[in-house]
Design goal:
With 258 residues, the protein is an alpha/beta fold. It has 2 domains: 95 residues, Rossmann fold (3-Layer(aba) Sandwich), CATH 3.40.50; 142 residues, 3-Layer(aba) Sandwich (Rossmann fold), CATH 3.40.50. It is built from 11 helices and 8 strands. The strands form 2 sheets. A 4-stranded parallel sheet has the order 2-1-3-4, sandwiched between helices. α3 links the parallel β3 and β4. α2 runs parallel beside α3 and α6 crosses α11.
Length: 258
């Protein structure tokens, strides 16, 4: 199957337009797409270079969040199939609000008011990763618990970077799983605990990459650990999220809005 090329053009990081493009293109499973990100297109020279690159790509699709009308006009010169988020959405919002939109680039993911708090949250997640510094758990917004390799660390970091949430994570070891209760250090924070689990075969596959052919990665070991962990989760009535078929972004969104 021949891949279609889709460009994601932004005057800043491109996170928003890439998310839009991926969501839209996922609705066409019969086709295969390759995304090319063109971030920080914030001058006429850069816009002209982007337009030339796009024009040289046959049958290209272009998703754009350029906020400057002059730069959007340059991009249209590529004569590709252009899907401009501002052109498509802003007029409808203007009608609803009765106000004209005022272009201002780079504000969605720039150095905005919550930047410092998000960086602080990232540092917090790193300092309380994998059970470190448990004496600081009372400072956490959320505490992720689960067996090794269920996705606690990347989820905690994503919650911090994307939402500014202070997320700690605490791994349940085989010794913890042999007990009748969660570790004492967690019991004082039950309202903030969120449990992660996943299918045994998926966990075994993840562990196999890290420690091939080990007991740690065996399906039997994974199954036993997950059963024991879920018994503890039920004992303490913890909210449990099955991450088997979820991306980190989806896990974080579910945790943020349970």
């Amino acid at each position: 199957m021949k891949k279609r090329i889709a460009f994601c053009v932004s005057d800043h990081t491109g996170v928003t337009v890439e998310a839009v493009a991926k969501s839209v293109l996922a609705q066409f499973p019969a086709l295969e797409f390759s995304l090319i990100a063109l971030p920080f297109i914030d001058s006429p020279e850069k816009a002209q270079a982007a337009a030339a690159q796009i024009a040289a790509t046959p049958s290209a699709l272009v998703f754009s969040t350029l906020s400057d009308p002059a730069l959007r006009s340059i991009l249209r010169d590529s004569h590709a199939s252009l899907f401009d988020v501002f052109d498509l959405v802003a007029p409808a919002v203007e009608t609803a609000l009765g106000l004209p939109a005022i272009p201002s680039g780079g504000h969605t993911h720039g150095m905005n008011n919550d930047y410092e708090s998000r960086m602080d949250a990232v540092n917090f997640a790193l300092n309380l990763d994998d059970g470190l510094n448990p004496e600081r758990l009372d400072q956490a917004d959320l505490i992720l618990v689960g067996v090794s390799r269920v996705g606690k660390t990347p989820t905690a970091l994503y919650l911090a970077l994307q939402y500014g949430l202070r997320a700690a994570n605490y791994p349940l070891t085989p010794d913890d799983l042999a007990q009748d209760s969660l570790p004492g250090v967690l019991l004082a924070h039950l309202p903030r605990l969120r449990a992660l689990t996943l299918a045994p075969d998926r966990l075994a596959a993840i562990r196999q990459v890290r420690y091939p052919d080990s007991r740690y990665a065996s399906l039997a070991q994974c199954r036993d650990e997950l059963v024991a962990a879920e018994r503890l989760f039920a004992r303490h009535a913890l909210p449990v999220l099955d991450t088997t078929r979820m991306s980190v972004e989806e896990i974080a969104a579910h945790l943020r809005h349970p």
